[in-house]
Structure formats: C-alpha cells, structure tokens
Amino acid sequence: MDDCIFCKIVKSEIPSRKIYEDENILAFHDAAPQAPVHFLVIPKRHIRNIMELEQEDISLAGNLLNQAQKLAAELGCAEKGARFVINCKSDGGQTVDHLHIHVLGGRFLGWPPG
Ligand code: AMP
Asked: pTM for this structure?
C-alpha cells in the first residue's frame, strides 16, 4: 500500500534496523523502544490488522509467531521471557495499520499495561 509506513520499510523506501527477513516476513527494531528489547515482526504483504487475517493466512500467522519466538530467544529473552503484543484498531491502540507483533523484553513488564 502506497501510504503505509511499514510497506515503505518492506520496500526499503525508508530505513529500518532489520533483524530478520525472508520471502514473507520482516522483523526490525521499533523506532521508539519501550523496553531494552523491542522489535516488530510483520508480514511483507499489507494486512491491516489481525481482524483481517483470512483462513488462507493461517500458515503465515504461524510463521510470524514462530519467528517472533525465535528472534526473542536470539535477543536474550529465552530465560526470563518477553511480551508478545498485537494491537488492533483504535480500542487496541494500533497506530500503524499494517499487522505487526510487538516483542518486548529485557525488563519486567507490569500488567495491565499503562
Ligand atoms: P502500534 O501502536 O501497535 O500500531 O505500533 C506501531 C509501532 O511502530 C510503534 O511502537 C512505533 O514506535 C513503531 N514505528 C513507527 N514508525 C516506525 C519506523 N519507521 N520504524 C520502526 N518502528 C516504527
């Protein structure tokens, strides 16, 4: 999508600190980290939010989670854990309308989030 900031990151039209990339998935550090580890895992295809995942996206959704878990472990979160978050639409606090999993770790995170 032309005006989507994450699609622009996928196309390298704007810079990002990439952590992982394959044919369908990209992971990069969040520009405004809320924890020592804070990165995003996104599908390269523009899917606006988790509500728009279709039946045929089940394998993609599984791969996004699998990659989020692997990268969290690689970035030092295996022992103490991390938080895996998907914000959705206005009530969910989503500000970028391109599906993404936040992975936050490296410190204790309280609940509920502030
Ligand atoms: P959300 O509020 O769940 O939609 O999360 C959007 C996230 O994208 C926020 O944590 C932002 O800090 C992050 N973000 C926005 N623009 C960029 C960018 N250009 N590079 C990396 N992260 C970004």
From this structure: 0.98
